[in-house]
Design goal:
The structure is a single chain. By secondary structure, this protein is of the alpha+beta class. It has one domain: Methyltransferase, Cobalt-precorrin-4 Transmethylase, Domain 2, CATH 3.30.950. The chain has 6 helices and 10 strands.
Length: about 180
């Protein structure tokens, strides 16, 4: 997936983790909301798209360095990314990986993602190993109609998530009628 991300930026996103990097070991609710918005935006690219948000991968050296400083984790470089994993976050929260994964699934199920995307994302989250690191993979797939997050529609352009203004809803729905 990391190699494919060079050519399919709109369908891939990377997050270093779920915790804020301020040293307080608190869950970053705003970052989690960004993950959900991104999944909604990926699902709205076109009717046949499938994309991913990988958590446990820093896309900047600064974030990787901060993870190393806070959690004594040595990031694994891969091309221009740094695999940090999520084990250190589970430990910092006093949890194991299974518990963290189930709590994330529960947060998805209680989120403002529209159905059926919410159900799809919750059922298809994966925990995968890359050498000694665990990465959580969130999968988004276009549904039979556009998806929203908390009543707003988003779409992904390159590595940016943009709000779709109401004046463009007609165009968005037409993409899904084909």
């Amino acid at each position: 997936m990391l190699k494919q991300s060079y050519t399919e930026q709109s369908a891939y996103d990377f997050k270093q983790g779920f915790l804020r990097l301020d040293g307080k070991n608190t869950f970053d609710e705003e970052n989690f909301r960004k993950i959900l918005k991104t999944l909604s935006g990926i699902a709205n690219i076109s009717p046949d798209v499938r994309g991913y948000v990988l958590v446990g991968i820093a896309d900047t050296g600064d974030d990787a360095k901060r993870v190393r400083e806070l959690y004594k984790v040595e990031p694994t470089p891969f091309e221009r990314f740094f695999i940090t994993g999520v084990e250190h976050e589970a430990r910092a929260l006093g949890k194991n990986l299974d518990t963290l994964l189930m709590e994330i699934v529960d947060k998805i199920k209680r989120s403002g993602l529209s159905e059926p995307l919410k159900d799809y994302v919750a059922r298809n989250i994966k925990s995968v190993r890359y050498y000694d690191k665990t990465v959580f993979i969130f999968e988004a797939q276009a549904q039979s109609e556009p998806s929203n997050f908390e009543g707003e529609f988003f779409v992904r352009y390159g590595n940016k998530v943009e709000t779709i203004p109401p004046a463009k809803y007609g165009e968005m729905y037409k993409r899904f009628l084909l």
